[in-house]
Amino acid sequence: AFEPDDLEWDSDDESFDQNDDDAYDEDNVEAPWREADRDDRNASGTDARIEQSIDRVIDMVELEPELFIARDELLILAAEDSVRAIAEQAQLTTISIEYLDGLDDTLGRFVVPKDKQLSTLRADIAARFPDAAVDYNHGFALAQTGASAAAAGALYRRDSLPVMSTLRVGIIDSSVSLQHPVLAAAKIQQREFTPATKVTQSDHGTAVASLLVGQHDDFVGMAVGAELFAASVFAADPEAGVIASSDGLVNALAWLAEQRVHVVNMSLAGPPNTLVERTLKRLRQRGMLIVSAVGNDGPFAKPRFPSAYPSVIGVGAVDTAGRAYRRSGRGDHVEFTAPGVNIIAAAADGSTKSFTGTSFAAPILSGLLLQRLSVADSPESALNALREDTLDLGPPGIDPVFGRGLAGRSLLIKPLTP
Q1: d(C-alpha 179, C-alpha 181), whole Å
Q2: Which residues have C-beta within 8 Å of that of residue 43, sequence separation ≥ 6?
Q3: What is the pLDDT of residues 154-190, one digit of tens each?
Q4: Alpha helix (H) residue ranges in 26-162
Q5: Distances from the Cα of 156 to the Cαs of 150, 160, 414, in angstroms?
Q6: DSSP state string for 116-143
Q7: With 0-12 CB in 10 A as exposed, 13-18 as middle and 19+ as buried, what is 189?
């Protein structure tokens, strides 16, 4: 069995060597950060600025159609000395600088000077400091499209689901209704990564959580018994709707790393972001399996992230007959498909509803991965076991619609005809 402590979380791990990823060359810095300057700058951060910065997390502007970023903000992920030196040189106003223990890295959030163009400054910093991840504070959306007696997904046998009390799973989503009857017996820890006044109550996070660890009457999730760590990152924005920020995702991933979760489910989609990419790559190198919905923008849309990163397992949606969901994303980043059409799951109001979207295929795939982890000796062997247990629904081999195929072939209640 694959136990929690089998993961290598040592900050001295080669894949997290600060000398490799966070190299800082003082010769490239015109004004090195001095200790006295650091103290002065820390002291200058007022409570009023902090309060203002919290509100800024939902001050989104539309950079281009359906691409939202936080107004006038840049994010930097690197070694602390590099973050502070970059901020000094570029004359950035500090919103926050925080060391993330789970990543062994430092995340800085800044406001750019009014006399500088955001895109130009971003490009200049990225070119001068290639070892730092520098990007906009992008917005990410939930990967759902609608809500309307077997295990979750209605395709898998209930008696085939093992108890996984030694495993931990994380979700990055909207808030979870912990009082829901389906989740009452589940072991769940939840943490908010949005201001308390901005938290959005949504069916989405509750539904995703229930598909993993829910159990009540005829409802059984895919990973009953696993401990769930729920990171709530979504807030309401007047222009962008319900949206999460890049710094929220990085902070959430760092927290989940600290909790030593084995699988992280991200039922969300958005643009590429260098800080999120860097974080996911590092966590994957440490043995964490990261699952993400491919999005619901249709077959002709560009790949959505984080599912399109090589470090992430992208999941598309099919219905209970094995037919591709018409709005499921397609491309080389689709590795698996799972049920995601008219899926019964818990809703925030205490009821159950029918949900559709790749958001709901992702936790089913995450549950199947956890099942393999319960009997595997490593994350890679668990992933490979699932790769070998698929039903090819498209042309022979891997294809851009179904990926490797429908996951969990051996657990299906009845055969499906490709």
Answers
A1: 6
A2: none
A3: 788 877 667 688 899 999 999 999 999 999 999 999 9
A4: 35-44, 47-56, 80-90, 118-128
A5: 7, 8, 8
A6: S-HHHHHHHHHHH-TTSEEEEEEEEEE-
A7: middle
